[in-house]
Write a structure and sequence with these properties.
With about 575 residues, this protein is of the alpha/beta class. It is about 45% helix and about 15% strand. It is globular, with a radius of gyration of 26 Å.
């Protein structure tokens, strides 16, 4: 991944986020979450996802040699990161994290973040010292959040994402079921349903069986459940505490109070009915839905009562797409996402066909695969969300592209503005490659500055300061689109007609855009007024962009060689 996307060592944090949450676009996530410059206040990665209502704060470390454990002082450094991100005067934060910190605080205040993950990500074995340091960091984060009105409602999870944990996440992403043992159960009865590609058994199991299962296999049981068991903390709104309480005090009623468990299995054999019940042998198990029930029962202080029964459904599927959909539709954390709603739209169907003729490009068009996509997704894939964001910014709405990417797919008006009958695969390549070129520039400048602060020219430093503002990549894409008539030296009746003259790959298109991006970044100081608290807003963008377009037009003759070379590669 690091080589594919030309990323720094901090990319190990993005790798962990991708494995844990199965994100779509590695490069865009990296460009927006890896902090820039050397003064990062001990925060290497800060990722805020309002759709999932999560935030990840990470310190990253990549050892070049075999070590017994990662340095524990770097885990302690997360205390510094927490203080700066959540408590310090926002205006005193360095530009590299100011916009991200403001975004995090705003998301907390608006209720758009419900879980904060604090990670120390490294490629060494875990250690007790790091564990203790992270516990202290978690307490610091809880204290900092107490100053926010909704801070008490936020769950905090500190975790050492060590070599073994990353390997396990990778294995989980590659294989849906990682617990492959055989289990022989006695059940009172069961209802079996069979179809061509799947079969299912619905029954109930004893609380003791689920208790033993969890205590033997732990979180391996949740290889098909993105969320896993969240624990039974007071801040969990007492949901899991409630499950435990019911199991202890009302075991006979638990069956009708609880939603039960859905589990994927590799195989099962259901015996015939007898007076004593039925035998059920299952091979392999991955709990798709019911992680909180399983974890709560499994973490009871004592063995559960013999009266405790849990409703359960075992599902066996012979086709990968059935398995993927069972995971998707049964997993609360993996609910239908915005782009899924348009996956069958006629325009998306047409675009997927058109992309068959684009070299080194694969387009999902709203379709998503299963859990293994986190590691199997081709580096040539154009993720649906990022395509929508690039089109939105290019065609006039950079703020929505930055802050409301889901609405590009769920809001019919927003969707129809960017996916029209004139939207073609080659036009998508035109817009998407521009965003990719901008993101690559930020990653390159950030990596170079972290390695050697003196390696950047003043113009490059100014460019990086600009790109560290939240939404700057979509703003720059937008202003370049507004300057296209100046760049091409001709009127453009419809920007949807803009494509590269040759049918080239997105990677090749990035190379064509790079001189334009470099030239525009040299003028980025002209866009400073487009930011409010280091983030773009509609009002400030509308006020600033016309002036920038005028500046570019005024220096057109000075940039004639760059503009003419690019224009020769474009048709409209």
């Amino acid at each position: 991944m690091k080589e594919n996307y030309n990323l720094s060592d901090d990319a190990i944090g993005v790798f962990a986020i991708n494995l844990r949450f199965n994100l779509d676009d590695i490069q865009t996530i990296a460009a927006e979450s890896i902090t820039g410059g050397g003064d990062d206040k001990k925060c290497d990665v800060l990722y805020v996802d309002k759709e999932r209502r999560i935030a990840i704060i990470a310190q990253c470390y990549v050892s070049q040699r075999v070590r017994e454990a990662a340095p524990s002082n770097k885990a302690s450094d997360l205390n510094t990161a927490i203080t700066w991100l959540l408590s310090a005067d926002i205006d005193k934060l360095p530009p590299s994290i100011r916009g991200r910190a403001d975004e995090l605080r705003s998301a907390i205040n608006s209720g758009d973040v419900k879980q904060i993950y604090i990670w120390y990500v490294h490629n060494n074995p875990s250690s007790k010292n790091v564990e203790e340091e992270l516990r202290a960091v978690e307490k610091s984060a809880r204290a900092a959040l107490s100053n926010y009105p909704s801070g008490r409602d936020i769950n905090i999870f500190s975790e050492e994402m060590c070599k073994n944990k990353l390997s396990r996440l990778y294995m989980q992403a590659e294989r849906t079921v990682i617990v492959t043992d055989e289990f022989n159960l006695s059940v009172p009865d069961a209802v079996q349903t069979e179809e061509t590609d799947w079969s299912s058994v619905v029954t109930n199991v004893s609380g003791e069986w689920l208790y033993r299962l969890y205590n033997k296999y732990g979180t391996d049981l949740f290889s098909a459940n993105l969320r896993g068991y969240l624990g039974s903390r007071d801040s969990d709104s007492n949901i899991n505490n409630g499950i435990k309480s019911t199991a202890n005090t009302q075991p006979k009623n638990f069956y009708v109070y609880n939603n039960g468990v859905t589990a994927l299995v590799l195989d099962y054999e259901l015996g015939r009915r007898t007076k004593s019940g039925r035998k059920l042998k299952i091979t392999g198990i991955a709990i798709v839905n019911g992680a909180q029930t399983t974890g709560s029962i499994g973490s009871l202080e004592n063995y559960p009562s013999g009266d405790l029964k849990i409703p359960i459904r075992f599902v066996k599927a012979s086709k990968d797409f059935i398995v993927a959909n069972v995971v998707r539709y049964n997993n609360l954390q993996n609910k239908l996402q915005a782009a899924d709603f348009k996956s069958t739209d006629q325009i998306q169907e047409r675009l997927r066909l058109e992309f068959d003729d684009i070299p080194e490009a694969e387009y999902e068009g709203g379709r998503r695969g299963g859990a293994s996509d986190a590691i199997k997704r081709s580096k040539f894939t154009l993720p649906s969300y990022t395509v929508g964001q690039s089109l939105s910014a290019f065609h006039g709405n950079p703020v929505t592209a930055y802050d409301k990417k889901s609405e590009l797919w769920t809001n019919e008006n927003n969707y129809r503005q960017i996916f029209t009958e004139r939207t073609t695969a080659r036009h998508i390549v035109f817009c998407y490659s521009l965003l990719k070129a901008i993101n690559e520039k930020r990653l390159d400048l950030s990596s170079r500055e972290k390695q050697d602060k003196q390696s950047l020219t003043q113009i490059e430093k100014n460019s990086l300061d600009f790109l560290n503002n939240k939404g700057s990549n979509y703003l720059l894409l937008h202003v370049i689109s507004q300057c296209m008539e100046t760049i091409l030296s001709k009127p453009i009746p419809n920007r949807f007609d803009l494509t590269f003259r040759d049918n080239i790959s997105p990677g090749s298109a990035v190379e064509l855009w790079t001189p334009i991006v470099d030239m525009m970044l040299s003028l980025s100081n002209q866009l400073e007024s487009a930011f409010s608290r280091n983030r773009i807003s509609n009002e400030s963008v509308n006020r600033t962009v016309p002036n920038f377009v005028g500046v570019v037009a005024s220096i057109k003759n000075l940039q004639q060689a760059t503009f003419s070379e690019f224009a020769s590669k474009v048709v409209a």
